[in-house]
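Homework help board

Subject: predicted structure for assignment chain

Our instructor gave us this sequence and asked us to write out the predicted structure in token form, then describe one feature. I got the tokens but I'm not sure how to describe them. Can anyone check?
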Amino acid sequence: MSNNNDDFFLVVVLFIQPLYAIWACFRSCPSSCVCTQERNCSVLCDRIGLLEIPNEFPCEASFINLDKNNIKFLSERAFGTLPSLKCLSLSHNNISFITPGAFKGLPNLIELKIAHNEYIRYLHTQTFSALKKLMKLDLADSNLFNIPDRLFVDLPLLRELMFFQNNFRRIPGAIRGMQSLTRVYLESNRIEAVAYNSLQDIPNLTYLNLQDNKINVIHDKSFQDCQKMEYLFLNDNLLNELTDNCFKGLKKLKMLNLGGNYIHNVSRVWFQDLIELEVLYLDRNKIVYIEEEAFENLTSLVSLHLNSNNLATLPFDVFRPVYFIGRLYLFKNPWECDCRIEWLREWMENYKLVRDISCASPSSLAGIDLSSIFFQKSPEGVCLDPIEQNFTYYIPLPTERLPSTMESKLSSLISKLLLTEGSLEDLGNVTKSSDNSTYNTGMAFTAPLAQNVAPILFLVSLTMIIF
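My token output:
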């Protein structure tokens, strides 16, 4: 009998518990906020003009949204005790100070968003120390200049860190030694260098975004402790050269973006370790020269971006040995379309890997796509540059107007043929005289003159056709 009572009691508890959770959620929902009805409810307090954090929240809340209010200050235990809270968003407020201990009472918080609070500027070493289970932290666009080196020492599970659009002049030392960190967003700051110890002991980092900074130097082996790195963004910085071993150890890297810098020459040693690289961006630089076999170790490469540089030619040996490249982007370069890039013309036709290569020189081919140019061969089988072809094989069409010099030559030749043999030495005077005696109708034809009648008639006919 007692067993039946126990079973009945268990059923009642299981039935009442979710009902109680719903009731508790509604009972303690902050004024002007909206609370959803599920057991792990969401509390939506965004865009309602709050000046401070509400006094209480439902104890079952798993998500609290306080975005786009006018909150300025986070006091100690600002949210009370919320054991079920997993995600807290405070983005787009006017927060200027966070009291150490503000997040006490949130033992299971996984994600914290405090982005777009431009007045924070400073964080205490103990700001996040209570968040032992925090995995994702968003502090983007918060006007931060610096943070304490030990800011994350008590966050053993932190995996994703968003610090973009701040004012850091160096990579924050707080990320060193973060064993669990996998993704770091530091784009659009003022970082000037990647030092040899900037990324020390971050073995699980797979994604690092440093684009749109002021980076002008990367020290040798700066990434050697990031052997699981897969995506590295260094585009839109101030790099004009790289050290030989700057990418040493990045054997798992799949994408490297170096676009939008000031690189002039590409060394064959830069990419030696990048055996799994699939996409390489070198676009929007100042590249004029690429060393032979610069890409020889990139056996996994499927996309190479060299567009918008200063390349006039590209020797085939740059791609030797040849591996499969899915796409090769070469547009917006001042290409000199001569025999040095004949191989590229064949690639365009046979492999369809390249397109939109517009010639800049010679001037006769300016604006013409390389795919439209035919490279002729000499009798010995040697490629002839298009400028040689134009000079050697150019024949004006019948409809084209001959230059004025040709007209004068034909006129002069007719005059020569009309002259007697004895008067050829006076050619200059005769051709310039307004009284040309050779056209006197009363003069009898001499023997030499009669012999030249047929050529004269032919030249006159030709002149009439042309002109």
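Reply (TA_rk): Your tokens look well-formed. For the description, you could write something like this. DSSP finds seven helices and 22 strands in the chain. That's the kind of observation they're looking for.
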